[in-house]
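Hi P.,

Sorry for the delay on this. The queue was packed all week, but I finally got your sequence through. Input first:
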Amino acid sequence: MIVRVITVYVKEECREEFIALTRENHAASLKEPGVLRFDVLQSEEDSGRFLLYEVYADPAATLSHKETAHYRDWKQGVENMMARPRESSAFTVLAPLNPAAW
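Then the structure:
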């Protein structure tokens, strides 16, 4: 399993549209094989900071996600909404190791 954590900073005037587009991407992503979680979180301290917490069965699922039409549409749709570049990190899962626990 692999976890990707993406932090996105969104311009104030774009937040509602960003949320709508990201919820669409979330729903479509959960239908992909190999996607175990796809959480979308908004900071309570900074309403313009969002965290995407994505869990994939393996690195191939991560690559497949980036090739989907809904991901490309999301990426293109939110590109100009960002207050600064996205921050992305990948993590190896140490626990839980059972995919059913996700």
